[in-house]
Amino acid sequence: MDLRSGYPFWLIKNGLPFNYPKLEQSIQTEVAILGGGISGALVAYYLINAGIKCVVLDARSIGLGSTCASTSLLQYEIDTPLSKLKNLVGLKNAVRSYQLCADAISTIKMISKKLHYKEFQSTKSLYYAAHEKDISFLKEEFEIRKQNGFQVKFLTQAQLKKQFNIAAPCAILSQCAAKINAYSFTHTLHQESIKKGLQIFDRTPIKNIKHDETNVTLITENGNSVIADKLIYATGYETVKFIKKKIVELNSTYATISEQANGKTKFWRDDVLIWNTADPYLYMRTTDDQRILVGGRDEKFFNPVKRDKLIDKKKNQLIKDFKAVFPSIEFIPEFTWTGTFGATKDGLPFIGSYPPLPNSYFALGFGGNGITFSLIAAQIITDLITDKKNSDAEIFSFQRI
Description:
- It is a single chain.
- The protein has a domain at 4-69 and 183-247 and 347-400: FAD/NAD(P)-binding domain (3-Layer(bba) Sandwich).
- The chain is built from 10 helices and 18 strands.
- It has helices at residues 9-14, 38-49, 82-89, 91-114, 135-147, 157-164, 182-195, 304-309, 311-325, 370-385, and strands at 4-6, 27-34, 54-57, 73-75, 121-128, 152-156, 170-179, 199-201, 206-211, 216-220, 225-233, 249-258, 273-276, 283-286, 292-300, 333-343, 350-353, 360-364.
- Strands 1, 4, 5, 6, 7, 12, 13, 14, 15 and 16 form a 10-stranded mixed β-sheet that branches. Strands 2, 3, 8, 9, 10, 11, 17 and 18 form an 8-stranded mixed β-sheet that branches.
- The longest helix has 24 residues, at 91-114.
């Protein structure tokens, strides 16, 4: 599947920082991980550190799927608001899902520090009402978050204008959020894991997969085999072809990033992540090299050609959306791109085993929380493979549908 198009900023910024070989012989391993993007990288990192022999396989060069198109916002908020998620999965599971995402941000921060990764930045998240009709919803959302221990403040129209110079009815300010570069972080994780024995093969398409009761056999395009005790699917939205049930709706999101500003320029207070209650929602962040990234204007995914024809139109709409919020801030676009993402009915990922495919696990971080969901998937799958009980696995299992 063609997952992205245009000029993703992170790919232009970082290029191809490392070379990984093609698989040119048949091999055996304990665990094969299909997909070398951010999901596969986090799963491999956890498994290698747990002493599990792993091999990562990717049809593309590493990171050139959805990962390089990610806007790399780290939020504990899930696309489905907590006040609505509780009606879909129950209050306990809804709150726990939000807590796990918050914990994931802290864990990614810890990993970044351990690996001397410099592009992680803690910040806050500002969720503002796009319309007057959203005021009561935001008040309800604020109350349920506050009641369940999340660090939030409710900002009135006057407070929002004074503190952030945004003219909107109200907002929720959350203390827990961060920014990262998913593409470079993926390579950082892989390089660390290679030191501990991880094998990575990219540009190695798999043409056939056979599951049986004892192992999984993968046949590459050039006829080599990979025999693994367990297979982890971490191929994101391309994985839908392996699942009999319809578990996700595919959409395309668009993003544009500004030219680099003067090093002393301050765009807005605290460099908070900004998003709103519109459907689809508008989202904004800054980068460590003084740019503004704006995304949104999602469309249903039909085919790459139709998606890509909209890039220029969406760029102009996103700039207009940004100027409506910050009319005094200059925005000169430099790079624009689009990427495919998926939305589940409850906004939660699918993580764990899928009975029709023996000896397999899935790390499917669908939605706007793909990176934090991937961290959660890495923890859960590592526990499952090492026979440790994980009380959170059921929340994200295929059995919930």
